[in-house]
Design goal:
single chain, alpha/beta, Glutaredoxin, six-stranded mixed β-sheet, 6 strands, about 10% strand, globular
Length: about 300
């Protein structure tokens, strides 16, 4: 199996991170499941030295995504902890999805001894999941792992997480219950108290992105952008959907293309939106550095 993922890009997560649960929420979580957050990602990577981990990056927007997640949970549970399921909600944990270099939702990966291997970028039929997990366990055994008590070993290695600042915790809780306005208010208050808080800045940018996309019809938005290439509002909303779906480079390019021959007002509007999306992606993301360079060339 080829490995275009390899080492996880933890450079994308160098900024301070929180620990709110960010995994997908379909059905009842498995006892052998963990929701991946920025703060917890390194521990999950470390745990993969002892326990093979199926890593699912998904979203509530994915058709049949809830059924796929529940089927994976049943498959993992049937192995009694020999394999673990880790979930990433791409809507609330966009920087984690970026660190995992996800291009499409859903994406299912195998995390084994700190290395990522792609499995599929689509929903798998439940009938194929048992066979998949059997293959995962066989690969783990071939690499010298004792999968019989792997989950217990990994659980014992986990350390308690640092408590979140109260306003950051409040924002995460608001996101969990779908109250994006309350989340934005909590992030803004945190920034009033700590203007240099990188996590609050990124969180506010992410919540703003989610709010702009919340009531949109993706097909209609993309059709409008295709029909009106010079319509700035249409292109900005399409770029938001690109970003929310993990298509980071497409989002940046769509906005940067609007700067060719643009007037100053358009330049200011596009620049402000790009700077916000840079925060969503994480300023250490190499795609951000490339887009910043192109932005500077087009502006000056």
């Amino acid at each position: 199996m080829t490995d275009p993922y390899g080492i996880i890009d933890l450079a994308a997560l160098k900024q301070p991170a929180g620990s709110a649960a960010g995994g997908a929420t379909a059905g009842t979580p498995s006892p052998h499941e963990v929701a991946v957050t920025e703060q917890g990602l390194e521990q999950i990577i470390a745990d993969s030295q002892q326990v093979p981990t199926l890593l699912l990056v998904t979203s509530a927007r994915v058709p049949e995504g809830e059924q796929f997640l529940d089927a994976l949970r049943r498959g993992v549970d049937s192995q009694g902890g020999a394999v673990r399921l880790a979930t990433v909600d791409a809507d609330t944990q966009q920087r984690v999805a970026g660190a995992l270099q996800v291009q499409q939702l859903p994406t299912l990966l195998l995390l084994l001894k700190g290395q990522l291997q792609p499995i599929v970028q689509s929903v798998l039929p439940e009938a194929e999941i048992a066979s998949l997990i059997t293959q995962v366990l066989e690969v783990a055994k071939q690499q010298g792992m004792d999968v019989s008590d792997a989950e217990a070993t990994a659980d014992a290695a986990e350390e308690p997480e640092e408590p979140l600042p109260p306003l950051i915790a409040e924002a995460y809780e608001a996101i969990e219950r779908g109250d994006l306005d309350a989340a934005a208010a909590a992030y803004r208050k945190q920034l009033q108290e700590s203007p240099a808080d990188a996590e609050a800045t990124a969180g506010l940018a992410t919540v703003s992105l989610m709010s702009r996309c919340r009531d949109t019809d993706p097909a209609a938005v993309r059709d409008a952008a295709a029909q009106r290439p010079g319509d700035l509002e249409a292109q900005m909303l399409a770029a938001d959907l690109d970003m929310l779906g993990g298509h980071v480079e497409d989002a940046f390019s769509r906005l940067l293309d609007q700067l060719r021959g643009a007037d100053q007002e358009t330049k200011d509007t596009v620049r402000a939106r790009l700077l916000e999306l840079f925060e969503v992606a994480g300023t250490a993301d190499p795609r951000v550095a490339q887009a910043r360079k192109r932005l500077a060339n087009l502006l000056y």
